[in-house]
Each structure stands twice: as structure tokens, then as C-alpha cells.
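TL;DR need C-alpha cells for one chain.
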Amino acid sequence: MTGSDALKVESQLDAHHIPETNGRISVCRRCGARTDSPEGLKHVVPDSQVTRSSHWLVAQSRLREIESARMQRTDR
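>> reply
TL;DR here they are.
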């Protein structure tokens, strides 16, 4: 993976959700990605974690699709 891949994944994570930290550790509780500080203003994905974070985003997308299909089915 390259630095541009990491930047892309970082921006996708930031668009998906605001980082949630405990205020002491620079890790998002929601996705497990590192953050810029313990306060967690933005995600910072090292090159070694790009694949894991990308897979997490894909899984979240699939969960949203499943929930949407479930809601459509119950509306009928």
C-alpha cells in the first residue's frame, strides 16, 4: 500500500464517522484505527493498517445494505 492509499482510507473513515476515543489512547473505539491524538480529531491510518481499515469499511457498507433490505422487507 502507498501513502495515497492511507490518505484515501483516512478520509473515508472520517466521512463515515467521527473518531471515538476514550481521551487517553489515540485509537478509535468504533473502528480500531489510530487517531491523530487522544482527543481523536481525525483518523490516521499507517500503511500497515490500510487493508484492515478498508475491510472494516466494506463490512460496514454490507451491514448497511443488509439493514436497508431488512427495513424494506418489513415495510411491505
